[in-house]
Write a structure and sequence with these properties.
2 strands; elongated; mainly alpha; 161 residues
């Protein structure tokens, strides 16, 4: 292999840095889509415990009655008009990916109130999809930098036991 001049080597490093930034951004784009899709799908269905977040409590009878009175199904927690679900958005800036909502009702739903138990949507979605997100980011990152032909976009790990 021919040797590189310092300027050529600096150019090579700059190209690698750019590839790393692209891989991170594109991996986070895919990861936030996974979490956003899961969070939206959770609303309207009772969720099991996820990490430190408890399983969703059954809706109160008064809430069920109110839902029916307003023309909604009795037992779809967090889902009435679909506005709260539709408010779940994602964004990627630099090396940070976010999934969240600007709907105040989501805060009350996620964290609970004095009258309503917490029902984790956003954090629960991330915990439920943690392995898938890690795999997508890892495969995308390795595949982007080294080529998809490298073991389907993943480098093998050698177990030295």
């Amino acid at each position: 292999m021919p040797s590189l001049t310092p300027i050529e080597f600096a150019g090579l490093l700059a190209g690698i840095v750019a590839e790393v930034e692209n891989a991170v951004h594109e991996g986070l784009e895919k990861a936030t889509k996974i979490v956003q899709r899961e969070a939206k799908a959770e609303l309207g269905r009772y969720q099991d415990a996820a990490g430190p977040f408890p399983a969703w409590a059954e809706l109160a009878d008064s809430t069920k009655d109110d839902r029916v009175r307003h023309g909604y199904p009795e037992n779809e927690p967090g889902l009435r008009s679909g506005g709260m679900r539709d408010s779940i958005e994602r964004n990627v800036q630099g090396r940070t990916g976010r999934v969240g909502s600007n709907d105040d009702k989501m805060v009350y739903f996620e964290l609970g109130t004095t009258k309503q138990p917490p029902r984790s949507v956003l954090a629960g979605a991330l915990i439920r999809k943690e392995d898938e997100v890690a795999k997508v980011i890892g495969h995308h990152f390795v595949g982007h930098l080294f080529g998809e032909q490298v073991v389907g976009g993943a480098l093998p790990v050698i177990n030295d036991e």
